[in-house]
Structures are given as structure tokens and as C-alpha cells.
Amino acid sequence: MGERFLEGRTALVTGSTSGIGLAIAQALGSAGASVAVNGLGSHEQVEAAVASVCSAGAPKATFLAADLANADAVEAMMRALDDWGPADIVVNCAGVQHTAPIGEMPAATWDKLIAINLSAAFHTMRLALPGMVGRGFGRVVNIASVHGLVASVNKSPYVASKFGLVGLSKVAALETAGAGSRDSGGVTINCVCPGWVETPLIEPQIAARAQANGGDRDAGIRALLAEKQPSGRMSLPADIAATVLFLCRQEAHNITGTAIPVDGGWSSQ
Ligand code: NAD
């Protein structure tokens, strides 16, 4: 078990039943935070996620159900979090993807991606930030994407939602910059912008390239990386979690309003 610098803190990680969010929930738990898990999934998947966060070292963990596409459900989740926490750390990680050219993008898919990837983060922040400011400590880490910094074809709602999330985070950072003190840790709002990370979210894109390479999954991954990510390496969910954990430290009190790429050089091109 690592350094327990988050003892006594409470965190919410949306989209933490899988992938990057689950790794972040575990990392925050291992640093001593109590963690509220949220996301979709079977009863077994939810139970396993909560148990893994406790095993990682969280003093307590719970599941807060909410379909983040629904603003009322987000509000109910935040009220439940207030009773359980309240939240010192909010990580907005839930996200969905759909690829198609704009002319073929269903309007309902646009609405759904904007609701989950962008509006849900607005709602968690509007409800959590006043308490953080009042207590003089708070961390919001929004898991955007390299697609919050540069565009790609066939991802109109995803790119729009992630650019929006980067902009929203900068506004929130300016509005909260003066809260607290160096000693209290202040209130900071940042985005982490991953390139390719090996999770279920990108499986359809790997599968499409594997199919073009005679069904070879490794060749599919190499093709995906070669298109965009100069390092030629996928990140692991734990790599993204390590960046989030650093932003939650007291010493990170002056890092706010940033959008940190973890993308193997993708956005430097
Ligand atoms: P994932 O599919 O493994 O996890 C997504 C999580 O979001 C799951 O827990 C899922 O249940 C939850 N979720 C989806 N719709 C929801 C809803 N309506 N209500 C509540 N929860 C919902 O994907 P991931 O790769 O871990 O993605 C996590 C975040 O990282 C996303 O915001 C994604 O855009 C971002 N991201 C991923 C990559 C990558 O390469 N995997 C790259 C850049 C950014």
C-alpha cells in the first residue's frame, strides 16, 4: 500500500465500474480516500468494482447508481453523496463513444454523448463546487481525451463533448482559483487528456482494424497506434490513474485549469 495522503477524504468517480474509472477509484482508495463508485453494469460487476476498491485500501466504498444521461439522476446521486461524504474529490470519468460521419450520426446519439460526456460533468460540478469552496479543499478531475485538444474524423459528438469539457473546466478553475489556501490545498479543476488506453471503450475500433488485418488483434492495435500515437504504446488505465492521483495531492494546489495530455505525443504533432 502506498502513501495514505487522502485519509479522511471522500471521492466520487463516475464511470468507475470499468476501465479507467475503475483504476482511478482503486488508486484513490489505495491513497486512503473513501470512494463512491458509479457506472452502468450488472450486479456482479458493481459488487466486484466496490470490493476491489476496498481491497485496494479504501476505508469504505459504496455504489451510487445513476444513469448520467439523466440530469435528475445526476442530482439525486449528488444529494446521496452529500449524505455519505460530502465530496472532496470528484472525478468525472463516465464516457461513451460512437463513430460515424456527421451526415450519418443519429441525432439521438449526439444528444446522448453530449449528456453523458459533458452535461453530467456540469451537473456534478455545479452541485459539488460550492461545498469544496466553503471547505477550502476540492479536486475535480475531468477525464477528457486527446480529442479535447485535437479532432479526428467520424467523432463529432465525442470531440465536441471533450472540447466542451476542457472549456468548462477552465471556467470552473477560474471561478474557484481563490478558494482555500496553500495549506488547505485549495480547489483545483483539471482535465486529463488520454490518447489510446486499453479499455472496453476502444474495443470496436481495435476490432475494425483487426478485421482489416486478417483478424489479428495485435496487428489491429499496432495499426491504431500507428495512425496517431507516436510512442507506439497503449497507456494502461493505471497510468491515467497515477496522473489523477498526483493532481489530488496538496502540492498540486496551484495546478488548475490545465488539460494534461497523456497521449504518447499525439497532440504534439
Ligand atoms: P469504459 O467503457 O471501460 O468505461 C466507461 C464507464 O462509463 C463505465 O463504467 C460505464 O458504465 C460508464 N458509463 C457509460 N455510460 C454511462 C451512463 N449513462 N451513466 C453512468 N455511467 C456510464 O471506457 P474507458 O476507456 O475507461 O473510458 C473512461 C473515460 O476515458 C471516458 O470518458 C472516455 O471518453 C475517456 N477516454 C478513454 C480513452 C481510451 O482510449 N480508452 C481515451 C481517451 C479518453
UniProtKB/TrEMBL annotation:
Family membership: Belongs to the short-chain dehydrogenases/reductases (SDR) family.
SUPFAM superfamilies, A to Z: NAD(P)-binding Rossmann-fold domains
Pfam families the UniProt entry points to: adh_short
Gene source species: Arenimonas donghaensis DSM 18148 = HO3-R19
Domain Ketoreductase span(s) in chain numbering: 9-158
Domain of life: Bacteria
Record InterPro entries: KR_dom, NAD(P)-bd_dom_sf, Sc_DH/Rdtase_CS, SDR, SDR_fam
Identification of the protein by name: Ketoreductase domain-containing protein
GO biological process: one example: monocarboxylic acid metabolic process
NCBIfam families: PRK12429.1
